[in-house]
Design brief:
eight-stranded mixed β-sheet, two-stranded antiparallel sheet, globular, about 20% strand, alpha/beta, 10 strands, single chain, Rossmann fold
Length: about 220
């Protein structure tokens, strides 16, 4: 199984690439610039070699090349660019692929952090409408800080909440996520739950600010 990260040169994409590669998955990061993607992939390989020793399988391509080459596609661009990226790649998507949306539609209004207003209840439901019907979208990794993913010296020790309308797509994303050390995947049901996850992200950021910390995330006890 080859994993692609669309917009993989940003903080979220870099963190996902490092954690997934460390878990043993071949990863290809994407960018509008294939040269930038290849350069960033080389930097990530060096980082993993220093942290974990040789064996990292991270490559870099333009975003269209990532879509053609990979089975599971993590969408890691800022939300304001996500719809345009999916639309540009829509004709290359094929049955059997899965898109994993990690975006959160954040904005500052009157110096206050809040979610953008969208026609649909969540960013994930908005983006799912762009995809072909035979390409399911799963929402995951929305509540885990990007800089925490990128810092391999930090154990995640939290749940990743996974939701989507395809049971099989959720199962596959949970299977992949379970390979990441310290991460506990939790199936939370259909895609409509994404609106709750996006609000949980806002809550985590507010907790960070109030308590002057940087790594707030969520873990469910009692399961």
């Amino acid at each position: 199984m080859r994993i692609g990260i669309l917009g993989g040169t940003g903080p979220e994409g870099r963190g996902l690439a490092l954690r997934l590669s460390q878990a043993g998955y071949p990863v290809i990061i994407g960018s509008r610039s294939p040269e930038q993607a290849a350069q960033r992939a080389e930097e990530l390989r060096r980082c993993l070699k220093e942290e974990s020793g040789p064996g990292a399988h991270i490559g870099g391509l333009g975003n269209p090349g990532v879509v053609e080459a990979c089975d599971i596609l993590f969408l890691a661009v800022p939300f304001e660019h996500a719809a345009g990226l999916l639309e540009s790649c829509r004709d290359q998507l094929r049955q059997g692929q899965i898109v994993v949306d990690v975006t959160v539609p954040l904005q500052f209004r009157s110096k206050r952090l809040q979610l953008r207003e969208l026609p649909e209840p969540s960013a994930s439901e908005h983006l799912a409408g762009i995809l072909p019907q035979d390409v399911p979208l799963v929402a995951a990794f929305k509540t885990i800080p990007a800089h925490l993913l990128e810092d391999l010296s930090q154990r995640l020790d939290c749940h990743v909440f996974v939701c989507g309308d395809s049971v099989e797509a959720r199962r596959r994303v949970i299977q992949v996520s379970s390979g990441i050390e310290g991460l506990s995947p939790l199936d939370v049901g259909p895609l409509r739950q994404a609106s709750t996850l996006e609000r949980m992200t806002v809550l985590a950021i507010q907790i960070n600010k109030r308590h002057r910390v940087h790594h707030s995330r969520f873990r469910v006890v009692g399961l």
